[in-house]
Amino acid sequence: MPTQQDHIIEAERLERLADAADSDHARDALRRMAQTSRLSAALVGMLEASREELPG
Fold first, then answer.
1. Rounded-to-integer distance, Cα 2 and Cα 4, Å
2. d(CA 42, CA 38)
3. Backbone angles phi, psi at 55, to 5 degrees
4. What is the mean pLDDT of each run of 10 residues along the chain (56 residues)?
5. How far apart are CA 53 and CA 34, in angstroms?
6. Which residues contact 7 (CB under 8 A, 6 or more apart)?
7. In 10 A of CB 11, how many CB atoms?
């Protein structure tokens, strides 16, 4: 399972690709993909934090 950092790295890569995209359509799609990666990073972070809080 990808880590929070993996998702952040992927989001940054997608954002760089969006900046260099030739069309508005490609730029928008890449930005949406980057946003999804950032949301995934947040979810993974919450899951990791909840595991740390469990006793045992």
1. 7
2. 6
3. -70, 150
4. 94 98 98 98 93 72
5. 29
6. 37, 38, 40, 41, 44
7. 20
